[in-house]
Amino acid sequence: MALILVGAIACKKTDNSSVKINTNVSSDDAADMVAGSLSVNSNGFAGISNDVAVQSQVYADAHLACGSTKTDTITKKSSAGASVTYSYGLGYSYTLNCNTSSIPDNVIGKVNYSGSFSNPHLSESSSGNLSFTLAGLTPTATAYVLNGTFLRSGSFASKTDTAKHGNSNLSVTVQNLNFRKPGRAIASGTATFSLNGSIPKKGNFSFTGTLVFNGDGTAKLTVNGTIYTVNLITGEKTKD
Q1: Euclidean distance between CA atoms 147 and 236, whole angstroms
Q2: pLDDT per residue over 159-197, tens digit each?
Q3: Domain edges within the chain
């Protein structure tokens, strides 16, 4: 009887361990999802926010009336032969605001998008938006400053573990993201994020963390206490 009981306990422990391994999405997996949603090569946040800075300055330089709103729709695709591919449709809305001297000062707007990307780590089909305020349009301003919220929801499939596929929701709140003038390279800024989702028959997952934009084309990404460096162009990550 003692031997049977020991065997039963051993089997139970093995089963629980197996369930835990199969249902978990690791911090590495979560970092891949966040990095893919950020990178320029997958038309992520870094690319969209750069477009926002470009267009906001274009509208400011066009001497539009203070308070006027402009809208636009475009399609963006990766170049032929790219290692990371994407295809997105985007809709932009910008409202130009002036300072007390009637000089263009900032833009409040929203970018809606939907499409897909595929990189060496995962593929994703999603939709979402960036709601933002971009300041720094006056000639004397030394930087553009963006504050806003970036949302992305859709389906994903890991390329490193085919069992990991399902749905995900990402929310990134960006504080004082500075773009250098001229050139619009990201100089500094911070963000917080939450990532959650589910894998069919395997359960839910949830992660929170922070981003610090380093000013050298990378960002420090902290996922549930694990720290990574993310290349904002390629979306590749390295664990610190």
Answers
A1: 25
A2: 988 889 999 999 999 999 999 998 899 999 999 999 999
A3: 25-239
